[in-house]
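3.2 Worked example (two chains)
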Amino acid sequence: MVSRKSAKQCKLFVLDTNVLMHDPTSLFRFEEHDIYLPMMTLEELDNNKKGVSEVARNARQASRFLDEIVSGAKNGIEDGISLKGHRGGSASGKLFLQTEAISGELPANFPIGKADNQILAVVMHLHRQQNKRKVILVSKDINMRIKARALDLAAEDYFNDKVLEDTDLLYTGTRELAADFWDRHSKDMKSWQDAGHTMYRLTGPLSSNLFINELVYQEDPKPFYALVKEQSGDTMVLQTLKDYSHLKNSVWGITARNREQNFALNLLMNKDIDFVSLLGQAGTGKTLLTLAAALQQTLDQKLYSEIIVTRVTVPVGEDIGFLPGTELEKMSPWMGALEDNLDVLNKTDEEAGEWGRAATQDLIRSRIKIKALNFMRGRTFLNKFLIIDEAQNLTPKQMKTLITRAGPGTKVVCLGNIAQIDTPYLTEGSSGLTYVVDRFKGWPHNGHVTLMRGERSRLADYASEAL
């Protein structure tokens, strides 16, 4: 880890530029430890401050933080500037800036003109000078850390942005009930009917481990699927789910093919849940289920005025350059998945005939708006069904910007697969999708499901497992 409260001695962390450009608040994340900024880090910050990209914005924000810290310094810069009192007072260490020329002796095969090597030279100098305390380089660049270790210097990744160290611990939204669940929790059980659902008030040890809107199930001896409606201490209220695998409960002609899809449709069709996140590998039905639920509630039930679809435009291979046309035309190549799913949904109404399906398709397209992420700031969506596709490529900050667009009556659905991240410096642990799944769990108006089984085709399923 980057910082540990239990450390007996204050450490000195030397920050690489990419750490500040990734998270400007990293200046205040090292608790009681000191941080050191080489002059080359400041130079690289200056070189990257121009533009409207996320990196440029972060470089400017980091410079503003540094200006705030330095201008409020009471002592000389050489003695270190206290970080106490800045950004809520979470940091109690000092900030040191390079104030003298350092000519560290790197091996002859290290080009001295390279920025990374100049930072390594500073780390080596500090390592020799401050031999009584640990000097550690913090960098997001793997090669930089490898070079540091080759020189016998301590180097670490920046971990503070990671929501979880191990994504296997990520909240799945579902929980299997033990075989003895009813024996341990049915004492003083109360049961009643409410709006077509059976409700159970139970008392027992499992209650303290559950979250509101977590989905629980038991397959044997008799299938039981429920949602945690209330939870307090050792008491919980379970609400049985609607069976969307039955044709009579189909959503825009779509029925659930497995348990997790049934769970997902229960969350998507629940008007009391404002935020839904669906994780799953390719072919698990995330987009199809969400679009079916969106069309049903927008066109049939009139709960929402329109559907808005957005996604991050990060290419998988080489970029094909600038795209011509309007915002809609520019976004069209990125919306192939949407088009494929609309074709499937439009074919579910077999009785309508070719003319009827064409009319339905025109109606659907008139109610679906495709928006680019670039123009979201400052907007407010009222009574909209907002779908954020490929959400694993969003940073936590971008995710916050998007979700805070939601006005009264708006439902936000995030879809993604954290195993397919294309954004540089984002990992499974630091993705915006992982961030919202972890932070929203337990909120009464949030629902989450991790879809397990692929339903695309036997070829796609085998490819997901074998390749």
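3.2.1 Second chain
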Amino acid sequence: MPGLLPDGEPVPDDGSLPPAALASTGARGFGVYLHVPFCASRCGYCDFNTYTASELGGGASRDTYADTVLAELALAARVLDEAPPARVDTVFVGGGTPTLLPPDDLARILAAIDATWGLAADAEVTTEANPESVTPESLKALRAAGYTRISLGMQSAAPGVLAILDRTHSPGRATAAATEAREAGFDHVNLDLIYGTPGESADDFAQSLARVTAAGVDHVSAYALIVEDGTRLAARMRRGELPYPSDDVAADRYLAAEAALTAAGFSWYEVSNWATSAAARCRHNLLYWTGGDWWGLGPGAHSHVGGVRWWNVKHPTAYASRLAAGRSPGLARELLTAADRHVEDVMLRLRLADGLPLSAVAPAQQPYADRALADGLLEPAAHAAGRAVLTLRGRLLADAVVRDLLP
């Protein structure tokens, strides 16, 4: 089931932001995230804020969801009325399974975002999708509505691995959907992989990588399986039905991904993401990783504007009820201090291929950067040029390097 939201101070009923936050809206870019919390079934590893039909209960419906989102968008327009963003650079529709909504609803929401703040001429507009939730016709409708990028949840091409993850699509459906998306005219297509699932062999993962590189996509995300408390997968492991993931196996899988994707013409630009060109990189995620602003629409969605981060109530019924009463759906928020923002900047930028300026590392931590260089965790040429950039070995130990570079 979905995890808990953090604590924070209350969000005002009208959603208003401090004047200091509004003063810099969009200075580092502005995006919109839309959370669609619906799924046809729950995958065993998933603790995202998603709900099947049986979990929704009364008061929430896919049929009225677009109208509810538009109510929050109207509230967002009022909050940012005195300092609206110059434009919307990126839109990302995630879930859940966004493509369980009709294409017309997704089109209507995108058109409303454009009418509210204006989409940049080259705006990147992404939707996530499960492979079985799209058809050639629905993909063409989404492309005609202005969606430029699609991210398909493949996870694996091995039937046994898909079964352990409780994925319902066939092994070949994800790559077939990727082909359909390219034929529909999408500029960019991503396939997601999960590695390190119990029972996954090296050959299983090699086959998944081979399918991905043969699919003609221009972006791949690959993540190690994380077992979250409260999920069906965690329960199976506690009962001894499945072994826990191995860090050593995960490292081997990451090295295999790097080798296969590099050979196929991909380059890493974030520890878990590879693209065939700079234009194929996910600009919306880069907005997050480089301290940009975004408004998150939908239950459980997080937002960030001018150093204020807030998050909405999680359940779709509570979300709809607040908006129907004319109140912000925001549950709580935090005002980031300069120290908070520095920590996040180091944590996120160090994961990027562009790296982190060494000038952003506190003087007391500079010896740790030198040690990481000596240990082969940072690139020598980049270090000499004043930047901390992870080597391949450094990427495997990224969390440890980040810890060392923070006070």
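3.3 Remarks
Residues 131 and 173 are 6 Å apart (CA to CA).
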